[in-house]
Amino acid sequence: MVKTGIDRIDEEKIKNLLSGKRLGVISACSALSSDYRYPVDILNEKFDVRAIFSPEHGPRGVLGPGEKVSGGVDDLTGKPVYSLFEDFFTSTDKAKTDGAYMPHRKSMAELDCMVFDMQDVGSRYFTYVSTLFYVMCACAVQGVLLVVLDRPNPIGDRVEGCIQDPENLSFIGMTRVPIRHGMTVGELARLYNGEYKIGCDLTVVRMKGYKRDMYYDETGLPFVRPSPNLPTLESIYVYNGTCMFAGTNVCDGRGTTQPFLLVGAEYIKSDALADRLNADGTLKGVKFSPAFFRAEFGRYAGKTLYGVRLHVTDKRALSPVRLGVTMIKTIRDMYPDDFEFTKPKTDGGRYHIDLSTGNSDLRDGVLSAEEIMKKWNKDAAKFRQTRKKYLLYD
Asked: Could you tell me the residue ranges of all domains in the chain?
């Protein structure tokens, strides 16, 4: 079984690294130790934890997607909680400290070390890796050591998708990496430090027994949902694709018990869409069945929707980015008078689909799905070369 960073906490070298230091902990419900405990509780028991810093969904994972995280006191540890998440995605903080998504100087004033332990899902969209970037910036300015307790990338080491245009950077894509980056959080931290010249005093506690092509169900580690809308590994496998629907008038399954595995809208004919997608020979490792469902909360609450249920048949053959691009192109082609990309909330604002995918290729509608993937995978190939010097595992 794989040993994560938190599972190595009693090793002398790691213990000496943290002992005698005043710690801040960045953690959430996404991480468990091999004995089914949360890292923040383990660290609080063994070391001098002074504060908890909370990403999206809150320190115990009860908040919904995009919901503002407020500060306060953690019920179990009694430690103060400082928010690292606001309720908007479209802005980026230019300041090196005290931005909306980064630790404020006052909250770090009496800390010697920050410990980061959160389970990522292998996606540029997922805000935990943006939190990591901002924490690194704050630690560099404050002169605080950052220790990353590493965890697996649950969808292996494959790289897919484009590197976003600079004008489309946001909190759902803070750094110019492909949609599916194929790295662990510890490796991403090393890449951020190297490529962005952050200057963070960084230590990554590596995993033991981990091979970089592993999927999460091959690690022997206990699974806990990394966010309320990623309750299963199957939902994580397709997330890099179906999350693109957040920038459209098609429901991505949020508000149901099968988020990211159900896709539908009031105007779709379920049988026709399932037949069309199942006949597409470019979509490997996935099948589609007609679906009829109702969202209980969110944008589509109370509406009866028609579409498809995704079934992952081979996780290694699946290319989720291609999946998302092809599904959007297919629905747009089938229902040109109904399908829409969500418009910016303000004049001159940015389209959500551009922020998530990284450019306007999908929205422009000029290129075919195959042409888009050919273009985007050139970025992926370049990134595979860039990331080589930051990788920690074979």
From this structure: 6-225, 233-359
